[in-house]
Write a structure and sequence with these properties.
Helices cover about 50% and strands about 10% of the residues. With about 450 residues, it is of the alpha+beta class. Helix 9 crosses helix 12 and helix 12 packs across helix 16.
Length: about 450
C-alpha cells in the first residue's frame, strides 16, 4: 500500500505569494511549478491557498471516471450566478443536470449551426475587411476580430449584430470572471462605475433579444438556432431556463466566443505573418478553397483546410486561452499519491503539457505542421486540452474551430498581410483571457482577391 502524502506548497513572495507571477504569465507559471514540484502543489494567490493539479497526469485525470466523480465546477460559479441574478448556468452544474443542459444546447453550439450559412459568414467578413483592412492601413487584429466574431454570431443566432455592445460585454465579463470566478481581483472592483454601466448595457441587450424571441415565438416563428432552442426550452417550462436565467443564457455565446476566438485568431495571424513560408502556403490553401462559390462551401471543405486548421490548433496550443480549469473536490480523493480533502478549491492546469518538450519538438515555436499528419503531436495522451477536458469541455469547440478556420482562410485569401517589423515578438496580456495585447498591429500590403 502506497504512502499518502500531503502536497508541497510554494511560498512565493512574502505577503503577495504567487499572485504577480501567476498574473503575468499563468501558463509559464504553472509549467515552472510543475517542473519544481511535480503534478500536485499548492500556490498562494492573494493570501489564499489553492491546490494545483498539473501536467498530463491532471489532464488525463480530469476526463477519467474518477475525475468526473470527484471534481466539481459548481462552487466556483456560485458568486457569478448570484451577481447576474440567475438560478443557474451550465458551468455551475455538475452530473445529470449538467448533461441535460448540454443536450438542450448541444445542437445550437455544434458545427451544424453553420450549415447553409457559410455564404453569409463570408459576406460579413468581406464587408468587415473592406471597411477595416484597407491597403496601407495598420489594423489591430484583436479588436477587429472581436467585432467580426460578434457580427457573425449575431447574424447567425439573432438575425442582427450587437456590435455597439461589444465593449460592454467584454468589460462585464472581465470584471465578473476576475472578481467572482478566479478571484484574482478584490470584490470592491464591482463597485466601479464603468463595470456597473457595462453590466447594465449588457443586460439591456439581453432584454432586447429576449423580447425579439418572445414576439417570434408568439408568431410561431421561433428560429431554428441556439437562441431559439433556449427560448423554446423556457416556454416548455425547462427547470434550467427560468425567466431570470434567460439573460445570461442568451448572452452566453458572446461571452464564450468574443474574447476566446478573437485572442486565438489574433495569435494565429501573428504566427502566420511571422513565418513567410507558412503565410504563402496558407494563401495557396485559401485560394484553392475559394475557387468554388462561397455559397457552395460545406463542412467537408473546411475539414480539407489541413494547414489552416493546423494553424488554429497550434495557436490554441502556443497561446492557450483555457490555461487552467477551476474545480473543487466533491469528496475526498487521492491523486498521484497525494491526499485531497472534500471542499478543496483546485486549479487543474491542463495547459502545462502544451509547453513540454516531452510532447512537442521546440514547443515555443509556432509550427502548424506538428498538428497535421503524420506528426499529430497533439494526439499523444494528455498532451492537448485547449478547450478543457472532462464533462465540462467547451460545448462550442466544433463551431469555434470551424469559424476561426474560415475567418483565417478568407482573410489571407483577400489580403496580403505582414508584421510591422519582421523581428516583432508578440506581446500578451492575461485578462479577461490570455492572448495578444490590444496594441498588436499588422500592415495590409495589398488586396489579393
Amino acid at each position: 500500500m502506497s504512502l499518502i502524502r500531503r502536497y508541497p506548497t510554494d511560498p512565493g513572495i512574502p505577503l503577495i505569494g504567487n499572485t504577480l507571477e501567476m498574473a503575468k504569465d499563468p501558463g509559464a507559471f504553472f509549467l515552472r511549478m510543475y517542473r519544481k514540484h511535480g503534478p500536485v502543489y499548492s500556490v498562494n494567490v492573494f493570501g489564499r491557498r489553492t491546490l494545483v493539479l498539473a501536467g498530463p497526469e491532471a489532464t488525463l485525470f480530469l476526463s477519467s471516471p474518477e475525475g468526473r466523480q470527484v471534481l466539481s465546477s459548481k462552487a466556483f460559479w456560485k458568486d457569478f450566478i448570484e451577481e447576474i441574478g440567475a438560478n443557474t448556468i451550465i458551468n455551475g452544474e455538475d452530473g445529470e443536470r449538467h448533461l441535460e443542459m448540454r443536450k438542450l444546447l448541444g445542437q445550437g453550439f455544434s458545427k451544424k449551426a453553420l450549415d447553409g450559412n457559410y455564404g453569409l459568414m463570408f459576406d460579413i467578413a468581406d464587408r468587415h475587411f473592406d471597411a477595416e483592412w484597407k491597403p496601407g492601413t495598420q489594423p489591430r487584429p484583436l479588436p477587429n476580430m472581436q467585432y467580426l466574431i460578434t457580427e457573425q454570431l449575431g447574424e447567425l443566432l439573432a438575425g442582427g449584430s450587437p456590435k455597439e455592445y461589444v465593449q460592454d460585454i467584454r468589460l462585464t465579463t472581465l470584471f465578473m470572471l476576475n472578481v467572482l470566478v478566479t478571484k484574482t481581483r478584490p470584490k470592491f472592483f464591482l463597485l466601479s462605475p464603468a463595470y456597473q454601466a457595462a453590466k447594465r448595457r449588457s443586460l439591456e441587450l439581453a432584454d432586447r433579444m429576449i423580447e425579439d424571441l418572445r414576439v417570434k415565438s408568439e408568431a410561431g416563428e421561433l428560429p431554428d438556432n441556439l437562441l431559439g432552442d433556449i427560448y423554446g426550452a423556457f416556454k416548455e417550462g425547462s427547470p434550467y431556463f427560468k425567466e431570470n436565467d434567460l439573460p445570461v443564457a442568451i448572452l452566453g455565446p458572446y461571452i464564450a466566443g468574443l474574447d476566446t476566438e478573437a485572442n486565438t485568431l489574433a495569435a494565429a495571424i501573428y504566427g502566420i505573418c511571422k513565418h513567410p513560408e507558412i503565410k504563402a502556403q496558407v494563401q495557396a490553401e485559401a485560394d484553392e478553397l475559394f475557387k468554388k462559390p462561397t455559397t457552395d462551401i460545406e463542412e467537408r471543405d473546411v475539414r480539407k483546410l489541413e494547414l489552416i486548421n493546423g494553424c488554429v490548433k497550434e495557436a490554441l496550443r502556443l497561446w492557450t486561452i483555457a490555461v487552467a480549469q477551476l474545480r473543487s473536490a466533491a469528496e475526498d480523493f487521492t491523486f498521484e499519491g497525494h491526499d485531497v480533502k472534500k471542499g478543496q478549491m483546485i486549479y487543474v492546469a491542463t495547459s502545462v503539457p502544451h509547453y513540454m518538450h516531452e510532447f512537442y519538438d521546440d514547443p515555443e515555436t509556432f509550427n502548424p505542421r506538428r498538428m497535421m499528419k503524420p506528426q499529430n503531436q497533439h494526439l499523444q495522451k494528455g498532451s492537448y486540452a485547449p478547450f478543457g477536458r472532462g464533462p465540462h469541455v467547451c460545448l462550442g469547440q466544433g463551431i469555434a474551430e470551424a469559424q476561426m478556420a474560415l475567418i483565417i482562410a478568407r482573410l489571407f485569401h483577400k489580403r496580403d498581410l505582414n508584421l510591422l517589423h519582421p523581428d516583432y515578438k508578440l506581446k500578451t496580456k492575461t485578462a479577461p483571457t490570455p492572448g495578444p495585447t490590444n496594441g498588436f498591429k499588422v500592415r495590409v500590403e495589398a488586396i489579393r482577391n
